[in-house]
Amino acid sequence: MILLLLLAGKISLAQTNQYQWKTISKGGYTYKTVAGDPMKARFYTLRNGLTVILSVNKREPKIQCQVAVRSGSNNDPHDHTGLAHYLEHLMFKGTDQFGTLDWSKEKPFLDQIDSLYEKYNHTTDTALRAAIYRDIDKTSGEAAKYAIANEYDKMLSGMGAEGTNAMTFMEYTGYTDMIPSNAVDKYLAVQAERFRAPVFRLFHTELEAVYEEKNTTLDSDPDKVFQSLYASLFPTSNYGQQTTIGTIEHLKNPSQEAIRKFYNEHYVPNNMAIIMAGDMDPDSVIKKIDHYFSYMKPKAVDVYTSPVELPITTSVYKEVLGPDAENTTIGYRLPGATDMHSYALMTTLSALLYNGKAGLIDINLNKGQAVLSAQAEADPYRDYSVFTLTGKPKTGQSLEDVRDLLLAQIEKIKHGDFDEGLIKATVANYKLGRIEELENNRNRADALFDGFILDKGVSWNLRAALLDSISVLTKQQLVDFANEYFNDNYVCVYKRVGENKDVIKVTKPPITPVFVNHDAQSDFLKKISAMPVSPIKPQWIDLNKDLTKTKLGNAIFLYAKNKENDLFELNYRFPMGSYNDRLLAIAVQYLQYLGTNKMSPENISRQFYNLACSYSINVGGEFTTINISGLQENMMKAASLLEDILRHCQADDTAWNTLKDRMLKVRADNKLNQHSIFSALRNYATYGSKNPFNNQFTNEELTALKPDSIVGLLHDLLKYKHIITYYGPLPLPQAIAAIDKVHQLPVVFKKHTSGNDYVKVKQDTSTILFVDYDIVQANVEWIRDTRDFNPLYEPTVEVFNEYYNGDMSSVVFQTLRESKALAYSVFANYYTPMKKKDKYTMLGYVGCQADKLNDAIAGMNELLDSVPVSEEGLKQAKESLKKTYQTVRFTGQDIIDEYLADERLGLTRDIRKDVYDNIDKIGFSELQQFDTDNIAHKPFTYCLLASSGKINLKELEKYGEIKKLSLEELFGY
């Protein structure tokens, strides 16, 4: 066992035999790696200071790539907040080599736009600003004639990349792509050019997308709470005094000069890293990275260091108003995550309080039903960390009551009022999480990204040792840590229901849609496309090899072997759900508050946590699934424990009455939440007034339910017909024997009642379903039910979706966001049903500023009514789709899930091969006929969630009859 710096701060983990840094030279390159690191990560530093971090995982022929910059919104100049985030957007616009038809002709217009924005930035007279903006708009239109929008996305999509995106936060900016393992050269060539000399083209339409993003945060009550909390925790530091998206005033006055200055100062190799995790040869990859990025020159970087914040000596209280349900958030300021002593203690303390199973908050507040819900979370940053406690009140409970209950859990830690065995269980669950993390390339890359942002990976040895570090922590250390940092030095934010009259909306500027040359290609793109790659052969599921279907007693048993680690998943899948019995979902919720004659509900939670296993029961409309998962060594104990609970749980009147009151409060809160309302609205549009969403007990019916009848349903659950699935390391005979020993099957299965069969609404005329909600934005969704499922349609459906909605170079994104600047979030997709007798659904969405609503609806309708012809766009969409099929690998539980999904559609084999073989046969004639038959000029149901005070409903009547819906109609109570 390792002693370490955690005990006395005197012994470094790097000095122990385990987790030492090792330096290895190979193939002309030197890298550092940590002995015992399960990721086997290699840390290189190239001659120009660029960090490269590589982790090999050959589970699938893909590589998760991250380009990390150790600068974010904390580094924004005080007079240009939001700059780092906006630069992130502009890094997708190309260089003088790609994204342009003719750089020599485009550049003078861009220089002129740059000059106009500087003039605009320093002008205060309203009339003069309007005149300057008209010049910006006009000149931008001229410049756009030479621009090729989203060539970056075209190149990445063309090489088969997925998940192309970027993110900015306080301490970082990151650029992410998942690429096929044969596309390394193409990817690196594009990235090297992208970061060489970015050009800020299509500036004013992209700025409009950032406006939309800003308005979205103004509509988000959680964002308001976050900003209020951090502003009070950090009254001096940029952690609290600057927001990532920036102020409205600064967004209205952008400076290309300031953005370019930021790029030149921070996007330098000694402040950046290239991180790759996946199927690769690291010795080859490092040479390629060095080749492509050797042009970069190091430069001194002004790293943001927070000023020392004065101690918070007394509790600070703030209030936030908004339409969503009320809650209490408490935040503490702790040492930064570079202090590994505090980091390990903070991480463990967080798990002791809240781990989803057996923490003090889990047991005392959630399991004890003392509040509606509560949680705790630790957020580590470089200079400081933030520890938050959040809770929602029950009916009749004040936000102050919730605060006191949350603080009481902290007091229990400070007084040592917790079982020391909880620390040991935390170690076991951390081990489980580490194994799960290693399976996924994105998780690996994200962990390495975080390590680089924190301290360039210097403390990776300590992070690799965190499991051992936690395992030697003592109860007294945790008590001492809590007493040192958790006192009256907190900030408490009360989120109350009400109108925030201080919100200032970013208004719509006059933007003329620009031409984006969607079909054009730069010579650079052609060069990238022509680079040779080694082919990757697609793999199809072979049910005779990849899955075993047999019997276990009188149940069907599906088996897939886990050949990678010691984790298991055991499922019992019942062909019944809430459509059959509305009581089932309530019974499952009630179960977590019940014990048996031998165990209390609290002891049950602790036992599962101690086993590093979990169980969940998911009640869907037509299926219910019991899932047990965790470490294989504890599978039989976990499965036996769950069987005992289901068969012997005892009704508890007090628990039921408390749960019932909490459920009524949740129902009321859902009516305040825009996401819940929109989900209800979508269900109403899809299925009509009687739909799966409002298939609920009324409040009166819920109140009349008796706990004995609920428990009776739980006792009988395992008597109903179900199939058993297992994915784990046990060989088939041992798996059958183990499950047969712990899972008691009846001789004859009990029959369940027949369920409701919801039928999708046929749209004969266009209708607008409207719900009035106090938000800055407007959300509108298009829904149309079309034809019955037919596997022969799937190639056309897949190509249509990729062409319309595949990525940022797709038709919908290019037109509505890139060209017309009408929205931040847009999509249009033709959805395949989940079962054979169901129908396809066309779904479109635009989230936009309220004053753009009419233009946004018209723009989407134009795209739905006529397929825009872009030969290159279609070619790219088909190539991207084929490459996705080539790199998809179904393993383990994925194979079981795919088999069950295909079974519902009446498929007896993997039809993905049929789709793949027919992709190249789909041309515009097929897409246009598909559009004509299913979408174009057809009636739609429009779902509209917006503030009636910010839109003109009368103006929308041209799209269909407007029906205003009440929340009672939507929710069913």
Write the layout of secondary structure elements.
Blueprint: H1 5-8, E1 21-26, E2 29-34, E3 42-45, E4 51-56, E5 62-69, H2 83-90, H3 103-121, H4 126-144, H5 151-158, E6 162-168, E7 173-180, H6 184-194, H7 203-218, H8 221-233, H9 238-241, H10 248-251, H11 256-266, E8 272-278, H12 282-293, E9 316-322, E10 327-335, H13 340-353, H14 360-367, E11 373-380, E12 384-392, H15 399-414, H16 421-439, H17 441-455, H18 460-464, H19 466-471, H20 475-485, E13 490-497, H21 523-530, H22 543-546, E14 548-552, E15 555-561, E16 567-574, H23 583-591, H24 601-610, E17 613-619, E18 624-631, H25 635-648, H26 653-670, H27 674-687, H28 699-704, H29 707-716, E19 723-728, H30 732-742, E20 767-772, E21 777-788, H31 794-805, H32 811-819, E22 825-831, E23 839-849, H33 853-865, H34 871-887, H35 893-904, H36 912-918, H37 924-934, E24 941-946, H38 953-956, E25 961-964, H39 967-971
Parallel strand pairs: 4-8, 9-13, 15-19, 20-24, 20-25
Antiparallel strand pairs: 1-2, 2-3, 3-4, 5-7, 5-8, 6-7, 10-12, 10-13, 11-12, 14-15, 16-18, 16-19, 17-18, 21-23, 21-24, 22-23
Helix pairs in contact: 2-11, 3-4, 6-12, 13-20, 14-15, 15-20, 23-29, 25-30, 31-34, 31-36, 32-33
